[in-house]
């Protein structure tokens, strides 16, 4: 379970982006692994997440994002393994009241 692995012990938290009442994106690092979560309000939105904090190297991620019916069925999500783009920009579409989570690690 992704959430059970984000213990606050020996971790570092950083707030990356927020707009009160609209969305928030936060990350936490434990060792060499980053955990990132993004939530939106009741508006569907596409966000570009800046991952430039990762630095050099090749990175992969487990991405958990809203499924096609997530706006009405909260348990609808998609899990995929992705390569983090070299430009460190990741575009994610979130359903109304939805979000996404990433577990990011070096290849």
Account of the 3D structure:
0% of the residues lie in helices and 56% in strands. The chain is mainly beta. Strands 1-2-3-8-5-6 form a 6-stranded antiparallel sheet, with no helix packed on it. A two-stranded antiparallel sheet has the order 4-7. The mean pLDDT is 88.
Gap between N and C termini, in Å? 21 Å
Mean pLDDT equals 88
The largest sheet has its strands arranged as 1-2-3-8-5-6
Which overall shape is indicated by the principal axes computed on the Cα atoms?
Answer: globular
Total of DSSP H or I helical runs spanning 4+ residues: 0
What pattern of helices and strands is seen along the backbone? EEEEEEEE
Considering the chains and any ligands shown, give keywords for the structure.
107 residues, mainly beta, 6-stranded antiparallel sheet, two-stranded antiparallel ribbon
How are the SSEs placed, and which strands pair?
Layout: E1 11-19, E2 23-30, E3 33-40, E4 45-50, E5 59-66, E6 77-83, E7 89-94, E8 99-106
Antiparallel strand pairs: 1-2, 2-3, 3-8, 4-7, 5-6, 5-8
